[in-house]
Amino acid sequence: MRRQRSARWWGAGLAVGLACALPSAVEAQIGVLAGYNRDTLGEFLPENGFGLTDLADGYHVGVFLNFNLAAFSIRPAVIYHRIPDLVAMAGEEEIEFDVDLLEFPLDFRIRLPMPLVQPYIFAGPVLTFPSSSFSGVDDLLEARPVRAEFGIGFEADVGFRLWPEVRYGFGLGSLMGSAVPIGSGVLRGDGDPRHDTLTLRLGISF
Asked: Do the Cβ atoms of 195 and 41 come closer than 8 Å?
């Protein structure tokens, strides 16, 4: 509950900051985004008789604000990131769980200015606030894990702007602890799961 309240305050603060910055930014664009994410829980090796899903397909939606400074751009965003259908196993017992993340990425972009299509590369940190509907997992989630992301994309001017892009992100620390309660047992293994993600995203700005 404390984690969720903290995430809401961060979200409200960033939204107010974006709203205040928009009128004064000559080259600012506000937009919405959505896409597909393939998430991996790596850096964990279950013991014999135990298991943890290491791959899941999910989605994400959000809003962003882009500031263009010549060929350089800064792009903060607020994103809801869904990781469903994860499974932890201990012998014959298993539990299904999900992980939701409220994310605050800050992309630094370098683009090639062109009239209709502008290719770009980018990289930046992503501050995340994870939660789970399964209390046994929610208690194990780190408070504010950070991920680093990089990728490529392009802007296409079609009256409004389309932003298709491909991103890869890797966790800079553990997403959660490994001692997941599973019925009468507890997940056992070496290491704590780290969150990596491959993302296909489309943004639209006006």
From this structure: yes
